[in-house]
Amino acid sequence: EADIYQTPRYLVIGTGKKITLECSQTMGHDKMYWYQQDPGMELHLIHYSYGVNSTEKGDLSSESTVSRIRTEHFPLTLESARPSHTSQYLCASSERGGPRNTQYFGPGTRLTVL
Amino acid sequence: GESVGLHLPTLSVQEGDNSIINCAYSNSASDYFIWYKQESGKGPQFIIDIRSNMDKRQGQRVTVLLNKTVKHLSLQIAATQPGDSAVYFCAENISGGSNYKLTFGKGTLLTVNP
């Protein structure tokens, strides 16, 4: 069982608010990822990080930003939330090196923007 | 671009039957594959993986088969139980180098009828 945590689990906010979704892992993994997933749909990579002070945009364009100041922490921020940001956000991590790139996921944050 | 897709979006089986979930991939350079299970309201959970130097790998009640000739992956679940009801995703990766991203398929919803 992976030790990766996301808070909050559910968030309902109004348009224009600034929000930060938290993601932490206690496994010492150097690689971390953020995915966006609509109900019943596939996962879309929006951000990833291969280590401290390293962040990259993913395959799906997103208005969110991320930071990686500590190995265990990879928060995602929306400066001004809009209804189009309503979705589930999943955080994942994977370990350094090795032949396998198994990603372990957190429980997700379901965001609703009114 | 390269993609991973699933043949069947939904699968309904009777409790106790065996289930087979299929996945097609298009990137012949992919050499590592993972199956994830995602229950409603939760993040994807690792089930089993396989590297391209293998044709078959077995876990507890699950078996993954890889056919590199036709670029096809399947997940077999023996004696399916109601707790197996979930969405199942396949994912692929090209191990080695600096690419640690996974490409996910669209997902298959498995429903187990009692």
Note the main attributes of this structure:
heterodimer, A: 114 residues, mainly beta, 11 strands, B: globular
Can you describe what's shown?
The complex is a heterodimer of chains A (114) and B (114). Chain A has 114 residues and is mainly beta. In chain A, 0% of the residues lie in helices and 47% in strands. Chain A is built from no helices and eleven strands. Chain A has strands spanning 4-7, 10-13, 19-25, 31-37, 44-51, 54-57, 65-66, 76-78, 87-94, 104-105, 109-113. In chain A, the strands form two sheets. In chain A, strands 2, 4, 5, 6, 9, 10 and 11 form a seven-stranded mixed beta sheet that branches. In chain A, 37% of the residues are buried. By secondary structure, chain B is mainly beta. Chain B contains no helices and eleven strands. In chain B, the strands form two sheets. In chain B, strands 2, 4, 5, 9, 10 and 11 form a six-stranded mixed beta sheet that branches. In chain B, strands 1-3-8-7-6 form a five-stranded antiparallel beta sheet, with no helix packed on it. The model of chain B has no long low-confidence stretch (mean pLDDT 89). The chains are: A mainly beta (114), B mainly beta (114).
